[in-house]
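Objective 1b of the project was to move from sequence-level analysis to a structural picture of ligand recognition. The entry below was assembled by the postdoctoral researcher (A.K.) and checked by the PI before modelling. It contains the amino acid sequence of the target and the SMILES of the bound compound, zinc ion.
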Amino acid sequence: MCPHCRGYLKVGDCIVFKIRNTRREKGLLMMHQEGDNYSGVKHPLFYSEEGERIDFFCPICMQSLDASLDENLVQVIMIDSSGYEQKIYFSRIAGEHSTYQVSSIDLIQYLDI
Ligand SMILES: [Zn+2]
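Corresponding predicted holo structure:
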């Protein structure tokens, strides 16, 4: 969920973000977990170069999801099946493209609140 409005970002198995690249093009990103990594699916015309810094926003309240501890990380709150909250950080640097519309985003670390 969003750390600002506590709106639910999860749809099915995916987490939905509003994203913006350095050319100020905007899109939506759906991320789902694949093992230790999260893969993102976005519109094929939303282009990000490897190493590009992508801005992540909550699609509900439109606030930036930048993590306060590191400007290269994005922060969301996950609630596990027992109701326990975890802060989860993702790198906001665009990663390797496995296909033209999927980019992978590494899960940096889990931190307990
Ligand atoms: Zn929000």
